[in-house]
Amino acid sequence: DGAVDLDLYLTDANCSGYPPADCAVLAKSVAETGTREEITRRVKLGDRYILWVDNLARTTGSSYSISGSVR
Fold first, then answer.
1. What residues contact 58, with CB distance under 8 A and at least 6 apart?
2. What is the mean pLDDT of the chain?
3. Among 53, 48, 68, which residue's Cα sits nearest to residue 4?
4. Average pLDDT over residues 19-35
5. Other C-beta atoms within 10 Å of 5: how many?
């Protein structure tokens, strides 16, 4: 739903609280329009991360899917 503003954040695996802004945000996508958020990050063997999806509409729910690729 393009009317719902979802944002995407990537933190290290030690981030245990919400909002993720309380942790070191390693990558983020905060587009205010559209239906796609995208982040890119170089990773190495053994790295662990958490992906956060934040619904800024707060009163309107929205479905979403996450796709990932390692190249």
1. none
2. 85
3. 53
4. 84
5. 19
Say if strands 25-29 and 6-12 run parallel, antiparallel, or are unpaired.
Answer: antiparallel
Residue carrying the six token digits 């993720």? 20
Q: How far is CA 66 from CA 22, 37, 57, in A?
A: 23, 10, 19
Phi/psi of residue 49, nearest 5 degrees:
-140, 165
The pair of structure tokens assigned to 26 is 């390693």
Among 4, 22, 6, smallest CA distance to 14 is for 22
Question: For the residues 31-58, what does the mean pLDDT come to?
Answer: 87
Structure tokens at 12: 């290290």
Q: What is the DSSP string of 36-57?
A: ---------TT--EEEEEEETT
